[in-house]
Amino acid sequence: MPLIYSYPLKSGMPLLLSTIAMALMTSTALAQSNAEKSGHNDEAASFQTSAFGRMPDGRQVDLYHFTNANGIELKVINYGGIIVSLKTPNVEGEFDDIVLGFDSLETYLSEEYRQANPYFGAIIGRYGNRIANGEFSLNGDTYTLATNDGDNHLHGGDKGFDKVLWEAEPFENEDGSGLVLRYTSEDGEEGYPGKLETQVTYTLTDDDELEVEYQATTNKATPVNLTQHSYFNLKGEGSDTILDHQLMINADAFTPVNESLIPTGELRSVEGTPFDFTQPTPIGERIEQDNEQLSFGGGYDHNFVLARDNAASDELVLAAKVWEPQSGRMVEVSTTEPGIQFYSGNFLDGSLTGKQGQSYEHRSGFALETQHYPDSPNQEAFPSTILEPGETYRSRTVYRFAAQKAFGS
Ligand code: BGC
Fold this sequence. Notes:
The protein has helices spanning 2-6, 17-38, 105-109, 111-116, 292-297; strands at residues 46-54, 60-67, 73-77, 83-89, 95-97, 122-124, 130-131, 135-138, 141-144, 153-154, 167-173, 176-185, 196-205, 209-218, 222-223, 227-229, 246-249, 251-255, 268-269, 281-282, 301-306, 317-323, 329-335, 339-343, 367-371, 386-387, 393-403. The chain is mainly beta. It folds into two domains: 1-32, no CATH class; 45-403, Distorted Sandwich (Beta-galactosidase, Chain A, domain 5). Strand 1 and strand 2 (60-67) form a beta hairpin. The longest helix is centred in the first third of the chain and has 22 residues, at 17-38. The two termini are 32 Å apart. The model is unreliable at 1-42 (pLDDT under 50). Beta-D-glucopyranose is lined by residues 117-119, 129, 261, 301, 341, 343, 347, 367, 369.
């Protein structure tokens, strides 16, 4: 059984022995069935490709299904680069889908979904989060962007990177398997200057990590702020709210907002506020407190200023960690970005029905979007989001998954 000998038993991997045994069996079966179906016989990671649907103009959308050596499964489509499914084990070794989403393209394209616009699992661009009044000035010119969130521009506009078809190329390498996605955003798209060549790489590693690498180049100066908009529910999608998930955010400050969720420009200390997640705290513990910032967001919908301690801008630092007590599932997020938007799913209202037929209720998923701060093109004091011709935008985020009996183990 060469597969068993090549199984990457990592020191410190916090899985129970039974979990490991199950994962071994699962990965053996999956690797074998994948080898048969896709012709790839790598003993560890593997992938399969299948048709997911067609765009209204007839172009085919594909589904890419990756499995790592421990049985973790990731499904991505090249429409919006959307992660439609991610299955990880609980402490008993039982796998569940931990991201909100749908199993048909029709649902992602439906009018009902576009109206609700939760951006489930999608790549967000050209600019993650809001730009005030859909306007900014750069090098003496004023640019007007699509306004799709009241008076503001949100997540790239009417047709952001979440709603376009990306060119996709699956791969396998020594780290795992994944997908390179490429999209060219034309000069003037949604009001932005410059033709932006974008590349996003997802890698599911045999260390139980999902790595997302972003790159972009432009021919005119333009703001760029790319992120990933998965909604997690570590108990399993569609099951319950996320209020008992325990959250740690490595941030001593956050960027308070006005009533339309535009940062005021202040970096405010989290100390003594419901925004202090420096110690693990259940998401629901303070969410209903009488607090102006929480009332503006309808809960948490805020950018946190990550404690990077002078780390270089290409260095990963721990941004957040979430643990769900019932399943023991944990996700840890590390990033090269200076900020993270913690969104507690406040706009979910039960009107969307997910993959397994359950409705997605208020706060039944949370997003942790690594990013530069919202509205940076209008906020001189925030780290710049302007990409110049000749430069390469680079950003990297790693989500590590595990199952453990306590937050800290
Ligand atoms: C924003 C929310 C928005 C959500 C879904 C988050 O990144 O901060 O305000 O409702 O995305 O669109």
